[in-house]
């Protein structure tokens, strides 16, 4: 039975934009969102709501349709949705150990040696359950969780214990885990928008952390070390992103972050060249 406060009903019913967008974020992962395809295709709909619905459908693995002469905002949303669906196919390939393409390479933005440290912590049990619940189903079996806290932001790496096999990682592409983000400003919730993918590289390992659109956000490498692997991951240069370096080991199925640091701020943009 559909109730007036059912989030799908709120989104699908014409009304103020704010409540509809807020309701879109509250739709459970298991919900039947078929009604949202009508919203996505409705030319008379609010373009902001249409755009948000198109992207939300893509995040659920569903492709929305729109008219060829759709407004620019809707076309932009369709482009983003295509990127999301492509990234899902890539992640699924790494999940199966048969990636459809190599991992994207990216430039590094390492933190200075003297940069402030990132706090490594273990979330309390109640919070741990929320972190794990935010991840994809394959991540929830015997998860290994490492929390990182810096400048008021909280992240958590979630990796199933079975996937922390350094020998296997050196031979087969894999979806090692996910990175969850704690949203604390407008709502207290965890989401898992990043996937950690690994790819063998001639006795070493290439590591990439991709966002929902398949863009590398962190990138690095792991080298064989005594009993396992030693890795370094850095942030990928992007506007507003501070340089970050994370180092650690994977030995005997135990993933340990030995050093993590982040610059206080993003580097200033370059001044335009003189003409």
Task: Offer a concise description of the structure.
The chain is of the alpha+beta class and 275 residues long. The chain has helices at 7-12, 17-25, 36-41, 47-59, 72-95, 125-133, 166-169, and strands spanning 119-121, 143-150, 153-160, 174-183, 189-200, 204-210, 216-225, 228-235, 244-251, 254-262.
Description:
The chain has 275 residues and is an alpha+beta fold. It has two domains: 7-95, no CATH class; 119-262, no CATH class. The chain contains seven helices and ten strands. The chain has a ten-stranded antiparallel β-sheet with strand order 1-2-3-4-5-6-7-8-9-10. Helix 2 runs parallel beside helix 4 (47-59) and helix 4 (47-59) runs parallel beside helix 5 (72-95). The longest helix is centred in the N-terminal third of the chain and has 24 residues, at 72-95. The protein starts with 6 loop residues before the first helix and ends in a 13-residue tail after the last strand. The model is unreliable at 270-275 (pLDDT under 50).
Question: Mean pLDDT, nearest integer?
Answer: 93
**Helix fraction?**
25-40%
DSSP E strands, number: 10
Radius of gyration over C-alpha positions, nearest whole angstrom: 20 Å
**Strand percentage, roughly?**
25-35%
Q: What order do the strands of the largest sheet run in, or round the barrel if closed?
A: 1-2-3-4-5-6-7-8-9-10
- Overall geometry: globular
How many domains? The number is: 2
Helix/strand order, N-terminal first: HHHHHEHEEHEEEEEEE
Beginning-to-end CA distance, first to last residue: 66 Å
The main pleated sheet reads as: 10 strands, antiparallel
**Classification by helices and strands:** alpha+beta
Counting DSSP H or I runs of 4 or more residues, the number of helices is 7
Spans of at least 5 consecutive residues with low confidence: 270-275
């Amino acid at each position: 039975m559909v109730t007036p406060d059912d989030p799908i009903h709120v989104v699908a019913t014409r009304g103020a934009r704010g409540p509809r967008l807020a309701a879109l974020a509250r739709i459970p992962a298991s919900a039947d969102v078929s009604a949202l395809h009508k919203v996505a295709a409705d030319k008379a709909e609010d373009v902001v709501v249409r755009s948000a619905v198109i992207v939300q459908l893509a995040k659920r693995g569903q492709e929305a349709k729109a008219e060829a002469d759709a407004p620019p905002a809707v076309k932009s949303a369709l482009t983003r949705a295509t990127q999301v669906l492509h990234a899902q196919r890539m992640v699924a390939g790494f999940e199966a150990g048969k990636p459809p393409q190599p991992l994207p390479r990216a430039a590094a933005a390492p933190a200075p040696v003297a940069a402030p440290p990132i706090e490594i912590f273990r979330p309390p049990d109640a919070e741990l359950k929320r972190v794990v619940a935010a991840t994809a189903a394959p991540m929830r079996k015997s998860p290994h969780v490492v929390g990182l806290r810096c400048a008021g932001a909280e992240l958590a790496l979630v990796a199933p214990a079975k996937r922390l096999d350094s020998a296997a990682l050196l031979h087969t592409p894999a979806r090692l885990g996910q990175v969850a983000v704690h949203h604390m400003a407008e709502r207290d919730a965890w989401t898992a928008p990043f996937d950690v993918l690994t790819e063998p590289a001639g006795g070493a390992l290439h590591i990439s952390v991709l966002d929902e659109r398949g863009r590398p956000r962190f990138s690095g490498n792991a080298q064989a070390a005594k009993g396992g692997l030693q890795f370094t991951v850095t942030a990928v240069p992007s506007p507003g992103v501070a340089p970050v370096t994370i180092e650690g080991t994977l030995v005997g199925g135990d993933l340990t972050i030995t050093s993590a640091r982040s610059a206080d701020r993003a580097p200033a943009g370059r001044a335009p060249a003189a003409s």
